[in-house]
C-alpha cells in the first residue's frame, strides 16, 4: 500500500454547496452560518440592555450573596470553636466579620465596571487603584451561561467567556440578571462576528433534543456500568449468603462508581437540547445546574465520534470536540457536543461544523499493519479522518485549516514492525487525531498531503474572527 490514495491525484467525495444530504435535519450540508449568501435575520424584539453604550455593573444581588458566603464560611469554620468564649462574643465577632464583608462586597461590586467598545470588552476593576483591561473580542472562543440552583430561583445567571490564551483566560460575570446575561452574550457574539453590538440575539433552529429513554438506555448499556452493577449484585448476594457484613464494604466503591458513571451523566444531560444559529452551536443541558453553551463558528478544532461496543447495536454514538479556549477541567466538561445521538445525526453535525465535507463519504484506507480490528484513515480537501478501535470504534476528524502541527513518529517497536504513526495536532482536548500502523512511505505521503491542504485552507480562510463580515454571495 503506497501513498497514492493521499497524493495530488486523489479525489475527494463530498457534496457541492447546497447539495441535499440524506438524513440531515435541514436537508443541506452547510449550516445556516456557513451557507454562501446567508444574511443574518434580525428579530423584532429590541435589546433589554444596550451594552454597546455606557458603563455597566453586575447585579446588585451580588453583594448580599458574597456577604452570605463569607459569613457562612466563618461560622462553619470558627463558629463552633469560638462558642467556648460565650455566645455574646461570637455574636459581636460575627457582626464585625459581616461589616467587613459588606464593605468588601460593596467595593468589589462598585469597582467592577464593563462595557463593549470598538469590538473589545473593556473591564475596569478597583476603587482606590483602578485597573483597566481591554479584551479584543476576536479572541472570544465560547460563551457559556451557567445557572446554579440558587441562581435559578433568584433569576440570576453567571456569564463565562472563554478566550484564547490558556488556563487564565476565562472571564466570569457573577452575577447578572437572566435577560441581561442573554443580551450581553448576544452583544459579545455579534461584536466578535463583526456586527453591531446592538444586534439582538440571533434566531435559532432546533437541531436535536435527546429522548430521556435513549439517554437511560445508552448510559446503562456500557460495559463498565454493566460490570460494576453485576459485581455489586454479586457482592450483596455473597454477603447475605455467608452472613459476613465485611463483604458489604466492597460495595461502597462500586456504588460510588455507579453514581459517577451512570447517575451523574443522567442528571447532567437529562434536559439536553442542541440548536444551530447564525452565531454558532448552542447547547442547553443540566438538571441541577442549568447551562447554555454557545460555540461560535470555526471554534471547533477537532471532533471525535465514539461508538462503544453495545451502542453500535443501537446505532447511536457520542460526539466530542476540542473547542479552543477550554482547558483543564473546563475542557473535559465542555467537550461533549452530543452525549447520545443516532449515528447519522452525529455525522451530520460534523458536516455542519466543517462545511464542505461529508464525513461518511470520505474514502478510508486500512493500515498496512493494523493494531486493532479497525485502523483506517482518509483525506479530502476539507478534513483528515481516522478510524480505529477493537471494541470501541472511534472516528476522529480535523479540518485542515485547524491543523497546528503534523508529525510523523517511528518508535522502537514500530521500527521492528516497519510501521509509522502520523499525528495531526490541534489545541488541547480529548481528541488526538492519529493514523497508526502505516507503511513509512504511505505515512510520508499522508504528511505531505495534509500539509499541502492545510496551507491551502489557511490561505483561503483567514480564521473565524469577524466571520459575519466575510460571507460572500
TrEMBL record:
Pfam families membership: bPH_2
Cited InterPro entries: UCP026631, YdbS-like_PH
Alphabetical UniProt keywords: Membrane, Transmembrane, Transmembrane helix
Domain YdbS-like PH: 109-187, 269-336, 379-443
Bilayer-spanning residue ranges: 65-83, 89-112, 214-242, 254-276
Protein name as annotated: Putative membrane protein
Upper taxonomic lineage: Bacteria, Bacillati, Actinomycetota, Actinomycetes, Streptosporangiales
Amino acid at each position: 500500500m503506497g501513498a497514492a490514495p493521499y497524493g495530488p491525484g486523489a479525489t475527494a467525495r463530498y457534496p457541492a454547496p447546497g447539495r441535499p444530504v440524506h438524513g440531515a435535519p435541514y436537508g443541506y450540508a452547510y449550516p445556516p452560518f456557513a451557507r454562501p449568501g446567508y444574511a443574518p435575520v434580525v428579530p423584532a424584539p429590541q435589546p433589554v440592555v444596550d451594552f454597546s453604550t455606557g458603563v455597566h455593573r453586575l447585579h446588585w444581588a451580588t453583594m448580599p450573596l458574597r456577604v452570605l458566603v463569607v459569613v457562612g464560611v466563618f461560622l462553619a469554620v470558627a463558629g463552633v470553636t469560638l462558642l467556648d468564649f460565650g455566645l455574646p462574643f461570637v455574636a459581636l465577632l460575627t457582626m464585625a466579620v459581616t461589616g467587613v464583608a459588606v464593605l468588601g462586597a460593596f467595593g468589589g461590586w462598585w469597582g467592577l465596571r464593563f462595557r463593549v467598545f470598538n469590538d473589545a470588552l473593556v473591564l475596569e476593576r478597583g476603587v482606590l487603584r483602578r485597573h483597566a483591561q481591554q479584551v479584543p473580542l476576536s479572541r472570544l472562543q465560547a460563551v457559556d451561561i451557567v445557572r446554579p440552583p440558587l441562581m435559578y430561583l433568584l433569576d440570576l445567571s453567571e456569564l463565562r467567556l472563554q478566550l484564547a490564551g490558556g488556563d487564565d483566560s476565562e472571564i466570569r460575570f457573577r452575577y447578572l440578571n437572566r435577560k441581561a446575561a442573554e443580551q450581553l452574550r448576544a452583544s459579545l457574539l455579534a461584536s466578535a462576528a463583526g456586527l453591531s453590538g446592538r444586534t439582538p440575539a440571533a434566531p435559532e433552529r432546533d437541531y436535536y433534543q435527546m429522548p430521556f429513554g435513549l439517554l437511560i438506555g445508552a448510559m446503562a448499556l456500557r460495559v463498565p456500568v454493566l460490570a460494576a452493577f453485576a459485581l455489586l449484585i454479586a457482592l450483596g448476594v455473597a454477603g447475605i449468603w455467608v452472613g459476613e457484613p465485611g463483604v458489604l464494604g466492597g460495595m461502597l466503591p462500586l456504588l460510588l462508581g455507579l453514581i459517577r458513571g451512570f447517575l451523574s451523566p443522567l442528571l447532567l444531560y437529562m434536559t439536553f437540547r442542541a440548536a444551530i444559529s447564525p452565531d454558532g452551536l448552542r447547547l442547553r443541558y443540566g438538571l441541577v445546574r442549568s447551562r447554555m453553551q454557545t460555540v461560535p463558528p470555526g471554534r471547533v478544532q477537532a471532533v471525535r465520534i465514539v461508538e462503544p461496543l453495545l451502542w453500535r447495536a443501537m446505532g447511536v454514538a457520542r460526539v466530542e470536540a476540542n473547542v479552543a479556549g477550554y482547558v483543564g477541567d473546563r475542557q473535559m466538561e465542555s467537550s461533549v457536543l452530543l452525549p447520545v445521538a443516532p449515528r447519522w445525526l452525529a455525522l451530520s453535525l460534523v458536516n455542519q461544523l466543517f462545511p464542505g465535507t461529508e464525513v461518511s463519504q470520505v474514502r478510508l484506507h486500512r493500515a498496512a499493519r493494523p493494531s486493532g480490528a479497525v485502523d483506517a484513515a482518509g483525506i479530502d480537501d476539507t478534513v483528515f479522518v481516522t478510524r480505529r478501535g477493537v471494541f470501541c470504534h472511534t472516528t476522529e476528524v480535523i479540518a485542515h485549516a485547524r491543523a497546528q502541527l503534523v508529525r510523523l513518529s517511528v518508535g522502537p517497536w514500530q521500527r521492528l514492525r516497519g510501521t509509522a504513526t502520523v499525528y495531526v495536532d490541534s489545541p488541547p482536548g480529548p481528541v488526538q487525531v492519529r493514523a497508526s500502523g502505516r507503511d513509512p512511505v504511505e505515512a510520508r505521503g499522508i504528511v505531505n498531503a495534509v500539509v499541502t491542504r492545510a496551507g491551502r485552507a489557511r490561505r483561503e480562510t483567514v480564521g473565524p474572527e469577524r466571520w459575519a463580515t466575510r460571507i460572500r454571495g
